[in-house]
Design goal:
This protein is α/β, with parallel strands linked by helices and 430 residues long. The chain has 16 helices and 15 strands. Strands 1, 2, 5, 6, 7, 8, 9, 10, 11, 14 and 15 form an 11-stranded mixed beta sheet that branches.
Length: 430
């Protein structure tokens, strides 16, 4: 009965496809550079340069590199407008403009912009602007604050700036659910198109939090890797026995979503279908995941059901949350076994691209969604690098150290955020 229901749902529900991708990442700026480096297992994690990290026990991060030169080369962010944007907004605009162009839209060939929405995920907002504003307040007083301090630092400005840059006049919103933010943003976007409230959604996430306050805050939670300051490229070690915490990253990823019928009508190139979304709350702890994995299991099952995936053997790839923390990686492994069964779970290729990019917090779900789309389109599974000392409690196929060519029918991406926010996306080959 359930299989019949799923098949009927698949036939009747409006399908949503990905037609454009843009990225700003620690592994390269632009979709092509970032994906090539991730496929090759090239690590973007280096010693922190944004500030002097000597006071921090974790001194490494996945920083975006040569961003100003990238903007000079591409012109994706207007220089005058950029003067009034925090870095997280600049990343979002650059990724969105690339994605828009990648989808085939131009000034001459564009959709009804009243039917184009902008839905982004973000975790913290304008950290850079916030830091400067507080320093100014303490040293010079409130009268010397910038009149644009608030507009630049609030999280919604990422969507606002993208909407203004591209002229998208549908809803412009930001979803904030910690590390699940941009996964949830994509899920909201999927439902918006299905419901007929938009034809096209500029969907994704952005984050720029490599600042002493943010690094120090996560450091005091004992969440960050501290044992590889002299070897930054080795610091992010998902599913390894000797993992010691996650590595912060930054950047943005934006995907252009549209209904299949809308994409077909204009002859658009399609990367894959965004087929399903599931979300739950652990209702357990403000930072730690529920060790049973019950919330993650439920979210994965909801996403698979939403995607009408009734044959679990068609799931060929999972981009795991894979933070390189002890609690997450063990819990996530348990969750995969619970959903798919031990035997089937061992047949699925799994990877944590955070081993190369670091953890982009609110932007990580969108980035990993983009990697799933590219993995399907390219028939290639990216690796989990630094896989050198397997954890007996993490005993699945994590695609160690080198990517592999593979036809991918269905891919799953998991995002499990502080506060117990669980978001899962399912992608299908188109």
């Amino acid at each position: 009965m359930e299989q019949e229901f799923n098949k009927e749902k698949e036939m009747n529900m409006k399908r949503v496809v990905i037609t454009g991708i843009g990225m700003v990442t620690p592994c390269g700026n632009g979709k092509d550079a970032a994906w090539a480096n991730v496929k090759a297992g090239a690590c973007g994690i280096t010693r922190i340069t944004r500030f002097d990290p000597s006071r921090c026990t974790c001194q490494v991060a996945g920083e975006v590199k040569n961003f100003d030169a990238y903007l000079d080369e591409t012109g994706y962010v207007d220089r005058k407008a950029a003067r009034h944007m925090d870095l997280f907004s600049k990343y979002a605009v650059a990724a969105a403009v690339e994605a828009w162009k990648d989808s085939g839209y131009t000034d001459e060939a564009k959709p009804d912009m009243d039917r184009v929405a902008t839905i982004l995920g973000n975790g913290i907002g304008g950290m850079e602007t916030n830091g400067v504003a507080w320093q100014t307040l303490f040293e010079r007083g409130p009268d010397r604050l910038s009149p644009l301090a608030i507009p630049e630092l609030i999280a919604n400005e990422a969507a606002g700036n993208v909407s203004m840059t591209l002229g998208a006049k549908g809803p412009a919103q930001v979803v904030v659910t910690a590390c699940a933010s941009s996964t949830d943003a994509l899920g909201v976007s999927l439902d918006m198109i299905r419901a007929g409230r938009a034809d096209v959604v500029i969907a994704g996430g952005t984050e720029a939090t490599i600042a002493e306050f943010a690094v120090g805050g996560f450091m005091k939670m004992k969440a960050l890797a501290t044992q590889f300051n002299d070897r930054p490229e080795k610091a992010s070690r998902p599913f390894n026995l000797d993992r010691c915490g996650f590595v912060m990253g930054e950047g943005a990823a934006v995907l252009i979503l549209e209904s299949e019928e809308h994409a077909k009508a204009r002859g658009a190139r399609v990367y894959c279908e965004l087929a399903g979304y599931g979300a739950t709350s652990d209702a357990y702890h403000i930072t730690a995941p529920d060790p049973s994995g019950a919330g993650a299991v439920k979210a994965i099952r909801l996403a698979l059901k939403d995607a009408a995936v009734d044959d679990l053997s068609t799931v060929d790839y999972i981009n795991a949350h894979g933070t390189s923390t002890h609690l997450n990686d063990v819990m996530e492994t348990k969750a995969f076994k619970e959903v798919f069964g031990d035997e089937q779970a061992r047949k699925i290729k799994i990877s944590s691209t955070k081993s190369m990019t670091g953890h982009l917090l609110g932007a990580t779900g969108a980035l990993e969604a983009a990697f799933c789309a590219l993995a399907i389109a390219d028939s290639f599974v990216p690796p989990t690098i630094n896989y050198e000392n397997p954890d007996p409690e993490c005993d699945l196929d994590y695609t160690p150290n080198a990517g592999v060519a593979k036809d991918i029918r269905v891919a799953v991406s998991t995002s499990l955020g502080f506060g117990g926010h669980n978001g899962v996306l399912v992608f299908k080959k188109h």
